[in-house]
Every structure is written in structure tokens, then in C-alpha cells.
Amino acid sequence: MQSGIVAVVATGGTIAGTAARPDDHVAYAAAQLDAEALVAAVPPLAGQPIETETLARLDSCDMDHATWLRLRARLAALLVRPDVAGVVITHGTDTLEETAYFLHRTLAAPKPVVLTAAMRPATALGADGPQNLLDAVRLAACEGARGVLVAFGGQIFIGAELRKVHGWRLQPFSAGDAGVLGVMADGALARFRDWPAAPLHAAAAALPPADRWPAVEIVTSHAGARGVLVDALVAAGVRGLVVAGTGNGSVHHAIGEAARRAERAGVPVRRASRCQLGGVVGAPPGALVSAGTLTAVQARIELVLDLIAADRARA
Ligand code: SIN
Question: For labelling alongside 46, which of 9, 155, 206, 218 has CA 20 to 30 A away?
């Protein structure tokens, strides 16, 4: 452990959720408790140097770009303080991988920024939030830790690699083929891999207000697909598109033809996979531009950042 304060920033989610009955894991209200209450529910954290603040109270399916910008600004202000060892963000599991990827790409994090969450509400008999929060705080106080990380279910993930692969299992996350960064064993980190490298093209510069972010949408390829969604999105003024293709990024010919029309209209298109693991390998002749190992939701964020950079270069 390194000395210093750990700041716990709450944004909502099931970890802060409450239900009428302790055996109810489904019909609960997310985002009810504030950061102070979450920390107070973890007895080993009593008396530790922790600051709490509640930045948002969102069910993370409603996460939005404006909240991301507020969170990023708040984190930057906390990380620059010499007395802060690291930051923990409590969040919903549903879009955790998107927030983690966004922060990884846009925030300089020489100290640990640890996201955590829960699959069971705080009122559940076997609530998983308190242990996850304890692990996250311990990780955020770890000497030498850095980068955007996720502590969940006793495992530590590199934030940019996280993906939610199950809708309701107690451990819904996967680290993909690279595997987890480490595990929390008896309260201490056992690390198998190096800390995440700072992203090469971190969009660390100012980002425009959320209402000026380019609109980028995701279209899924499937049996019987038509190009109408792509055409409608282009007509509606979308600035970029991600196609979540089948398997290794293959795309139904009707969507592929519509995607080419979009490109001719000046709308860049990226080809990802609707499979959560593996990404897209290789580039067959004539294929749409590959999103590589990124999931479709990560590819969407990447394309938003590319378009923001292009707008900035043009301005
Ligand atoms: C949410 O993502 O906010 C609700 C679901 C969850 O946290 O597991």
C-alpha cells in the first residue's frame, strides 16, 4: 500500500442499488446510495484515508457523453493532487467497459483509476459490491499501480480490455484473450501482467462539449439484414458508423453495399464483430476498414475520438 488518500467517486449502478426484498436481484432500483453509504458498508475501510463524492446517480444503461466529460474532468483534478494515491469509481456493470475505454483513451493516469461495480444490489443477501469496493480501494492504494483498471469478483482487469460477456452471472466480465492483469489474493494484489501502457494517441487535449461530439452509431449485421438502417442514419446526419459484423467481422452484403454508400457520402465506417471476444483479424480484399481487436462499443468511442481530432485539425 502507498500512503495517500483514495478518492471514491460514485456514478450509480447496481452497486448502489436497493431492492424491497433481500432475495431480489432483478426488480431493484439502481443508483440509490451515495458514495459515503457505499464506503460505510465496508467495515475494513473504516478509518482509512478515503474521500467520497457522488458525481452521478445513473443506471449505467443511461450513461452519456456529458457525464463522461464531467467524470474525466473530476478525475484529472483528483489525480493531480499530491495527497491522492488513486481514485475508485463505482459504476454500473452494463456500460462499464465503455467508460473504462473512454477514460483509458482520454485521461492521463499515472496513478491508478479503478472502476468497480456489482451484479447484486446493496440490499442483497450476498451483495458483491462491498468486497469489490474493498478490492478496488486496496488496488487504488497499491504502490506503483497505474492506468485505468477494473476490480471485480476478485479479479483485476485492464480497463481497455474489459468486456461484459454475460447478462446476469455473478462474474459477467472477461478480459479477452490476454487474460486478467491479476487477482486480489488475501487482500493483496497478485499481478500476472504489466500495468497498462499509456495509450499512444491519448486524446488528452480538450474535448468539445458533449453536444458537439460527432454522432457515431452501431449497426448490427444479421441474417436477413437490409441496408435501410445505414441509409436512414446517413440521411439523419450521422458522422460515423460501426458495423458489428458476424464472426470475424463479415458483413451481410446488403449492409456492406449501404456502408459503401455511406463512405461515398463522407461517413467513415469501421468493421467490428458482434462477438464479444476475439475482435477482427485480417483484412480481406475489398473489406470495410477493420476495428481490429476493439469491440463494437469500443470502436464507436475510437471513431468519435478520430472525428473529434479531424474536426480539430480542420478548425
Ligand atoms: C447498471 O449498469 O447501472 C445496472 C446494472 C449493473 O450495475 O449491473
Answer: 155
